[in-house]
Each structure stands twice: as structure tokens, then as C-alpha cells.
Design goal:
Strand 3 and strand 4 form a beta hairpin. The protein is globular, with a radius of gyration of 12 Å. The relative contact order is 0.29. The chain is mainly beta and 71 residues long. Strands 1, 2, 3, 4, 5 and 6 form a six-stranded antiparallel beta sheet that branches. It contains no helices and six strands.
Length: 71
């Protein structure tokens, strides 16, 4: 598992049950078969949104990487 730090912001837009969410990646891991799972904190309501691990799905997800460049 790879955890992300406070300056490594990766956003994923996701649709769950036809509802749009914006997620911030907290961690990811890669399975032996090459798939990637992301641990997402979702908005608009983090207290009620379906937070958790999600397998990457290019049909339901859009990924934007705002991580700061390595110095």
C-alpha cells in the first residue's frame, strides 16, 4: 500500500449509483493482476458519502493529479 502525504493531492471524480462525487486519494495499492485500488474520501458530504476502497474504473472515474513535483 502507498499512502499519500498532505502535499500529494490526487483527485478522482466518481459516479456512485448515478450520483457524482469528488474524491481525494488517501492511499492506493496494486493487485498482482495489475489493477489499482484507491482509498477515497468523497465529497460533497464526507460524513455520509460512500468512502472506502474503489477499484479504478475508467468508465466511472476521472483522475487529476495535483501532486507537487519532486525537488
Amino acid at each position: 500500500m502507498r499512502a499519500y502525504g498532505p502535499y500529494e493531492v490526487v483527485r478522482i471524480n466518481l459516479r456512485v449509483a448515478r450520483e457524482p462525487y469528488r474524491g481525494v486519494v488517501r492511499a492506493h495499492y496494486d493487485s498482482p493482476d495489475g489493477r489499482r485500488a484507491y482509498r477515497l474520501t468523497l465529497w460533497p458530504r464526507p460524513d455520509a458519502a460512500p468512502n472506502g476502497w474503489y477499484w479504478w474504473d475508467a468508465v466511472r472515474m476521472t483522475r487529476r493529479d495535483y501532486r507537487r513535483p519532486q525537488s
